[in-house]
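Researcher: We're teaching a course module on how sequence relates to structure. For the next exercise, students receive a sequence and then see the predicted structure as C-alpha cells, so they can try to spot secondary structure elements on their own. Here is the exercise chain.
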Amino acid sequence: MQHTDIKCVLEEAQYLGKEVTICGWVRTSRESKTMAFAELNDGTSLTHIQIVIDRAQIEYPATALRLGTALKVVGDVVEARQGSVEINVKNIEILGECPLEYPLQKKRHTLEFLRTMPHLRVRTNTFNAVFRVRSVMAGAIHNYFQSRNYTYVNPPLITGSDCEGAGEMFKVTTIGYSTEYKNEDEYYADDFFGKKAGLSVSAQLEGEVAAMAFGKIYTFGPSFRAENSNTPRHVAEFWHVEPEVAFADLFDIIGIAEDMIKTVIKEVMDKCPAELAFFDKHFENGLIEKLQGIIENDFEILEYTKAIELLKESGKDFVYPVEWGSDLQTEHERYITEEVFKKPVFVINYPKDIKSFYMKQNPDGKTVAATDLLVPGVGEIIGCSEREADLQKLLEAMRVRGMNEEDYTDYLDLRRFGSVPHSGFGLGFERILMYVTGISNIRDVILYPRTVGSIR
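Model: And here is the predicted structure for the students to work with:
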C-alpha cells in the first residue's frame, strides 16, 4: 500500500502542511472526551510521530489505540511543540489488532526479560536503536572496503577443514545418530560429502586463496563456534568481518584495522545521532565522548611481554594467574585497556604455542606476528596476524599440532605457487556493536542469539 515513511515526515520540511498516509504500530496512546492522541512508529526512526484525533469529527474502533495495534492513518502534517510535527487525522484504519495481553505493556523492561521474546523485543526503543545502528555499521564496513579496491568474496559456510585447528566445529551430516557403522571412517564415507564436514569457524583460509588472486579481499558473513562458553560476549553463531591483504606485514594490517574502526565509527556517529544519544543516556554515560575520542586519538601498540609485566606489577588479585606463555583473559584485557591506557590497545607478538598454526613465526622462535585489538568494556574485538608464508615452517606448525595435511592441500599450495607476505584479521561484528552502543551482552545486539542449550 502507498504510504510515507515516518522518518521522512519527521525530518523533511516538504511534508509540512501536506496530507500524508502513514502506517505504523501504536507505541503510546491517551484519550479524553473530545480528543485522542497516539504515537506511532514504523521502524524507520527511533522517534515516534504523534497523531491527533478530534473525536467529534473522526470515528474509529474502540481497539484502534491499543498498544501494539497496527494502523494506517491519513491526515495533515502540522507543526507541534519543540519544533517537531504531528498529524491531524482525517481517517484511521486498523491493519492488525493487538489484544490486551500484548506482553510489552510497560515502558521499560529488563533486557533479560526481553530475551525471552526475541520476536517481539525488536519493537522496543532499545532494539529499534540497536538494529538500526547494526544496519548502518554493516553498510559502513562494506563502504570502507569497496571504496579502497577490495574485492568482496563469499566463502563457503560448509567446510572440510578447521581454520583454527581447535576442533570446536558444528558437524554437518545427513545421517545423524546411527549404530550401523563400525567406526567414524565408515560413517563419514557414507555421508553426503563422503568425508567429515562442519560449519565454518572462519573464512580466513578461503580468504587467503582469494587474496592470492585479487590482492585485497574481504568477507562479511556468519561463523559458527561450538564453544561451551556461556559469557556475555560469546554466541555460537556470529557475524565475522575478515579482510585479507597480499603484500602486507603485521604493521600494515594493524594500520588498516585501526583506520577501518575509526572510519566506521565516524559514519555511525554521522548517521545515527539519535540512537547514540539514546545509548548514551540509558546504557553508557559518556558513550558519545568515548567514540569521539576513538576517532581523534591513536590506538596503543603493546608487546605481549610488556603486557605481562604490567599485569604482574599491577598489584591486582586476578582470578587467572599471569605468566609469560599464558593467554590473556578478559580481566587482564580490561585492566590493560580501562586502567592502564584507557583506550584501544593492539597487543602484539604473542607466544606461538597459544596462537593458531597459520601465524608467521618471528625470528626469536618463541613468538608469532600476531595481535589482538582490545577495547575498554568488551575486551578483544579483533584477532589479527601476518600469515606464515614459508611452506616448511607452516608444515612444521601443523605437525606439532597433529593436524592432517591432506585437509589443507589447497591452503598449502598457496605457499608452493607464488607465495607472498600477507596479513589479515577477523572482526567480531557483534563485539564492535557492543562497543559502539554500550550494550554489555552480545545476546542483545543480534536478532536471534544462539548460545549453549538455547535455540529458537
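Model: If you want an answer key for the exercise: Residues 125-146 form the longest helix (22 residues). The longest strand covers residues 19-31.
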